[in-house]
Amino acid sequence: MNAPFIMPVAALTALYPTSTSHAGRPRAPYQCLDNSKIKKLVIVFRNYPSDPANADEYWRTIKHTIQDLPTSLRSLIVLATSTDASGKLKPGKLCTHHNGLRADLIYSIWAWVKHELDSGIGIFLYPILVKAGLPMLQEWKVRQLEPVQRMWRRDFDALEQTPEGRQPIISDKWSYQENQCPACMLARIGSDTQVLSALYAGMVGRYSSKKVGKKDKSRSNRVNFIRYLLKQSDSGEKLVDESWDLGKEMKRVREGWREHQRDSVRVNFYGRKSRSSISSSSQPRDSCILINTSELFDLNDNVKSFADPQDSSFVACSANTGCTESGIGVDISDLAGTGKPLRRSRLVNL
Fold first, then answer.
1. Which of 106-110, 124-128, 302-306 has the lowest mean pLDDT?
2. Which branch of life, at top level (predicted)?
3. Domain range for residue 309?
């Protein structure tokens, strides 16, 4: 008899991995980068010219920089053109100047950068600015992120991006990016130290301490990417330190505000909000009577007519004056003005 075939343990492990941390969810290309590759890649995203159409020397430098990158960061096939007949960038492609880069890698980086600028950091910052408060200089630093959306939003409205009680930040340097190339927009962001500082501080404050790690050794490729972009600028080390401290301070401020919010909500024995915390919409309406339940009722007896005004078992109740009797409020607003008599009924399940 032939011996049964036994599959090697290594093969079984590959077929049926025990870890489910990434099951069914492939890693994004940027997650495969190590620090050495991030440092080389960010060189492409700096010194973006104010007038790209008249910056031949800049684009020649960028072309050579891309050619010197490791093969894992470059595209193996460089297309002669990446635009359609109308001049619009083809889906998933980069502009002519940046098409030497790996498109899937650049798009994966741009996806999370755009998310942070669209709403990620804004949701984190709003209660800090409006509810808790920051010193004026610190607030001004983090608000530099507000106008950046103009690069990809034709319908951008500065007033919509401005917190209550503040003046909108108007800046011409974030004009709409016509080709919508993610590499071009990353280069514009990477060339602005004010936005990089605010972005880095916001991410340090918003992300968990476990994910961020230490200042000089973050566990997050996202945080490392922005940190290395900021470090390559003039006075980069100083800006990184200041932004890190600002991010940690904002984290403390937000946690303090949340703790205050929890402590300020009073709850009763059943864990529900106290009467003073309930909105006026939940208060009883004026058209209401109160059935007195302080007396014992025999379930076999009929309830006396509501129409008897002398019966002490029924007391008029008003939301304006309140009721102190022990009773059950019954809303009769639907019957008011109809002229219909209230029907007799029995008490059930008191």
1. 302-306
2. Eukaryota
3. 284-295+304-333
